[in-house]
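Two quick folds needed for the group meeting slides. Do the first one here.
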Amino acid sequence: MADSGDLQTRLQDLPTELTLASGDHWHALFDVVRDPIFIHDAQFRVVGANQAYVKQAGIPYQEIIGQPYWRCFPIGDGPLPSCSRALTERQDGSDDDFILPDGRIFRSRGFAVYDHSHAHRVSVHILEDISLQVAMEESLRRSEEQFRLVTGAIDDVFWLSTPDLNRFDYVSPAFDHMWGFPRSTLTTYPDAFVDAVHVDDRPYCTRPFPAGRSEPDEAEYRLLRPDGTAAWIQDRRFPIVDAAGKVILIAGVASDITERKNQEEQLRYQGTHDLLTRLPNRALISDRLELAIAQAHRHNRLIGVLFLDLDRFKLINDSLGHSVGDVVLCEVAARLRGCSREGDTVGRLGGDEFVVILPDLGDQDEAITIAQRLLHEVARAIPHPDHELNTTTSIGISIYPRDGTDVGTLLRNADTAMYRAKDMGRDNLQFFTAELNARVLERLTLEGALRRALDRGEFELYYQPQVDLTTGYITGMEALLRWHHPDLGLVAPGQFISIAEETNLIVPIGAWVLRTACEQMRQWQDAGLPAITMAVNVSVQQFRSGRFIDTVRQCVSQCGVEPKLLELELTESMLAEEPDKLRTELHELKALGAQLALDDFGTGYSSLNYLRHYPFDTLKIDQSFVRDITTNPESATISRTIIAMAHALGLQVTAEGIEHQAQAHYLRRALCDQMQGYYFGRPMPAADATALLRKGEIGGESEAGGDRGELHTLLIVDDDLHVIAALERLLRHEGYRILSATTAEKGFEQLAIHGAAVVISDQRMPGMTGTEFLSRIKDIHPNTVRILLTGYADMATAKEAVNAGAVFKFMSKPWDNDELAEVVQEAFRRHVVRAAHTAGMT
């Protein structure tokens, strides 16, 4: 079969006469063509057609001849435009496409046949079925449109190029944003694609596609945009091969992976650095120290390892908040870096612990010099807009190879030395010694024994009474843990409680203490003894266990004791850790019925805030304030303030560490509710505590009545007994209760036990002058009226004391009896006014 293009060529080559005269040749030539062909004259009447046309028209050949061709074949209602142009413009018409009723698409390709005079004789039309071609073209067009829509909508760049990247056939619109310049640039300058890549990464970008490889290839490189910004690109490339397997095109998808790279870099950084201070962390510190050890071993050099722990940093965190604590840590980190030598490593282990590695040390003295410089720098005040920040550091030092030849040993020994620096008063440096190592081993041994102590029944509870000084009766007992070590004997709590807390053994030990204390309460009640409060100390680890409230509930329920008789004691430091969670749990304990006490009150920095947010029933004044309460104005003022504040908030107050009668009477006079200490009873076994409870009263009225007649009591303090006797003779008929003391120390004691309205003191006494003694009395016993006896030489000092308010009047020696008696009377009247004023305020 001939095709239509071949037919047109052959018709043009035939002589015109033959073409017009030989109908057989028309048919012979047309019938071999598979496409429909028809011939029409100038009036568009069909004068000839091939078999394909007849078959397509469905009309006998004889009926086709002479008919307008559009009536024989459904191609429209008139002549095709190409036919009209051929007749009027004497040129071959262009192709005409038309659709048949059945949906097929045909293309008419016509040309004219002329005679020798160039007159049009006939036109020949070849009809080609292009349905499949049109469908394929439409499918391709849609595919291309979809491809452009998809590649134009995604952020990745899709591109097609020759294998050598010398010509880009297609680049998606995302290129403009990712590369930073128009993709049209690649049309005239294809190298712009690679020129934008970092010079170090271009080999990855331009490497040829491996021969014979059909799998995708991938490269990552850095892109430098014209605006100065940079990006990481992941370029995945796919080969497009011909039938012979030759790569003819490269298809690529470029993705911006900058964010992923940044995250990977951040993760790598986090793995080796502390994010707050930007210092090397424990992992990198270990790596650096290991490298330093290897170099020191080769060159026979020393290494110094400095272990630093900030002093009282927890107080800053607890009182001012973690944000302020972070400021301190960052400033300390900067100062440590500033003090270090080139090649040194400054790192943060965590919390407030830092390490400085000093490689290539000449001698031990060099480590001392650097450590002293660090001590000085850390101790400088830290600037802050809202607070005055001050801290110091304790430094422990280990030296390679003397104190260890591996990373773990050197760090551990420096840590041990640091704790020695803490014990020595902080803000100093200590070197590791064998003695310190022995202490560490002793501690480890103690820890191992502690782990077995509970199972072996080596613990025992001792009980210390708490006394109401108004009545003298025991109102409670504090349960105190004791450890009977099989070899060491009775181990003091200070030696093992901290170990129990650090190892979390305090949780099972604390549960045992709570149950044993509740069982003892039950035994006392079954024995008919008065129901008293049982105070039990609680550790923060017990709350962290998540089981503490259930443990309390089970103990009081199974032992059959009232929850209100159980007092749980917490310290201020506990409240700073997870305060919100702890506050919720404390409210749950209150709902259960338990009493809550805040122990060691006044030693922290957030006490008032704790009282406002936590449901405490009792405050316990720390023994550090009680110890010198009768002689130290600050301790006395703090204690009285705590008592007054607690009562204003509806809280009870217990004072700890009462060892002397004077302390007890002073606190009773300050309206403290109850007390405990060696003065009332040392911690004792359960049997002794039971006997004490049967007795019931410890102090009673003998303790309570020490201050009777205070409004009429006069205290005379003078180391000269003749002066005391003379004053007693002068004033004994005035109705005063006269007490005397020959030293300031005894004077403090008399005032604490008995109280006094008026105090007369000599200026010149051994150990303490009269003005100093009366100045302290002014703060410790503010309602007293104070009179100073002095010689002429002490007049200036006496006047200063009067002006400062420490002294009401001063009398010179020898005195006028009538004048002195009148001054004493005026002093008692003034005391009455002061006492009434104070009573009105309270």
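Then this one, please, same format:
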Amino acid sequence: MDQIRAADLQPRFPQSTPTADTGTGANRPQLYYGSSGGQATGPAAASPDPAPGAGASTAPGDGVNLNFEDTPVSAVAKVILGDILGVGYSIDPRVQGTISLSSGRPVPKSEVLFVLESALHTSNAVLVHDAGGYHIVPADDAIGSGHVDRAAAGRNAEPGYGISVVPLRHVSVQTITKLLESFATKPGSIRADPTNNLVLVVGNGTERRTAVDTILSFDEDWMAGQSVGIFPVHSTQPEPLVAELEKILDSGEDGLSQRLVKLQPVSRMNAVLVVARKPELLRAAEKWISRLDNSAVASTGVKVYKVRYGDCVKIAKLLSVLFTGGTPGTAESPTNQIAPGGGATALSAAAGGQPGQGQTQGLGGQQQSPFGGLGGGGGLGGGGGLGGGGGLGGGGGLGGGGLGGGGGLGGGGGGLGGGGGRGGGAGTPEEGFETAGFAGGFGGGGGPGGGRALLPGVRILPDVSNNTVVIYANAETYRLIEKALDQLDRPQLQVAVDVTIAEVTLNDSLSYGVQFFLGRLGALNNFNTGVEAINTPDGAPPTTQPGFNLLIGSKLTPHVIIHALQDYTTTKILSNPSLVVVNNQVATLTVGNQIPVETGTANVLSATTAASSTVFNSVSYQNTGIILRIQPRINANGSVSLDIEQEISECANCSTTTPNLTPTINERRVKSSILVANGQTVLLAGLISETQNGERAGVPLLDQIPIIGEAFTPTNTRNLMRTELIIFIRPQVIRDGVDASVVAEELRSKLRGDKVGTAHPPGAVTPYPLGLVQ
């Protein structure tokens, strides 16, 4: 009972925090006021330590008058050190001269030694204190002697020559040394220790005390006097708002409040950061932010986003599918792009349905009509808006072609309509109106309507000519879209690909191909026959493709294997291209000719004479020669996936004098997907072709007689030629300017004929930690 009565039952209230607003909501300002109201606090008053030999603190009235006139140094030292302080001392014989000193008022005994040090300075002498007492020596001999003390607020440096170590808490040692060097101290008297953030001061007690007081006056917690506010903005972007606030508060360069208030936009939080010396300036900034961030700015409008690294069409396609519910195929339509001089179609849709089913064949044109038939009409989009109507069928005549099929419009805000039927053949310029048009094609069906819009009222479309994305949305919706844009519009990596294509003639030494030759020769100990790629990076799946696949490391260049083959057979370099391609894009290299190939024939009766007709041939051109297509894809661990399609083709029965519209094309093609490390060379081989050539010359009839016919045949030869195609591919990832300069230097070395070296040991696979490539 007594313990309960004695208990303290007074209520306990939580202490108030210095934050004016502790809410963590994204829409509420967060204010943090400084503890000193923006005024920097000075160092605490230093209480002097008692001087050695002086005992306790001297009473205010316990002082001595010092008055010397041309008195030798030894006499002054005897009076002050021996008579007044009663401490032991010694004087170096080299210290000579006289001292004139008059205090003018009583000096406390705790300050007498500092007065003596100042007087000795005129004679180029210093006072050194150690365990044996005080010593007066020349200033040049005092270096390395004396005591070392650790300075702090409230504790002065002791009298006598020595070193004071000043630890810094709030500012850097580089800042302090710039302020003190040749300003508050004499040159060479301070040293900096950046590792421990210490300042070392050397000199007599008076000099060190002055330097320590100056250092401590600057070593203040400058954040203690700062007030910080984070103000979210709702109707605009923080960058233009900061520019307006700087003009209002005059906080720009050379402004009245340049050092008093600082403004910084925080795009990640869509807020404005304000740092002020006084709370009044922070509250003034808060008022102006609320005035400028009003509802009038939040009205719906058009925003143009400048694409920095990517393709505006692809980015607009992704945004359309993500935010407006469009279909992936909608954004790829040419009608949905703003081309120079062209129109625009919004990549958005309401709830749509299935594609239209327009399948009616167009009506064929009459023989005397210069126009073709009409294309079939587009069907209705199932369950959604109207599908696209079919366009006009192709017409003849008009000296260059009929009207092409037009695409229909999506009905009721639905998806874009499908294209119309393909136009028929065109009349020749000579025929003009006299030639009848062909029958029109089928009308295209209506395109599929889009899905339900996730953000109603949003329109997104690409501007191809300026590589920008035009967005129609309100401010709140645009901020959401802009966050997605920041993630999509990232710098794209590149891949430099070196390709060497060689043709090897297979003789008796290489009758089984390059693979068995290299294995027998022992040029390489590790090779693969298409089952699993060796030296595969960690976590990479094995690759399988027909033919011979060999990874030969980064140091072993293709010319090593080619030189080894040249000692046994004939090798010919067909192509040695070096190209750079953006990550996940297709690079195509074509070296060769285009040959005409007939694809169709049409007989058109004459409009005047029924017995005569005109034959029209439809001809297309096909590429032949060396055709290389490569699509690299950089993985997260630094390896490179390559989709390769290599084709070498030639016309077998083409003539330079008589065109052949039905040629026979001989081709060798390899298509593969491989996975290699950065800088590693892969060898694709195993494409063997065989050619037989025969020549026979003899006496007619007689050379056909059995047994003796060979005597009348002077020439009868058969040649069999077998060749194998080998391809070396070496990808290098270009992440920055350093990688680009390395690739350029390797190319210059090739042109000069130098050996190209790499920074990796032979056979090494460059390791990359997971997540390095983004």
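Slide caption for protein two: The chain is about 20% helix and 30% strand.
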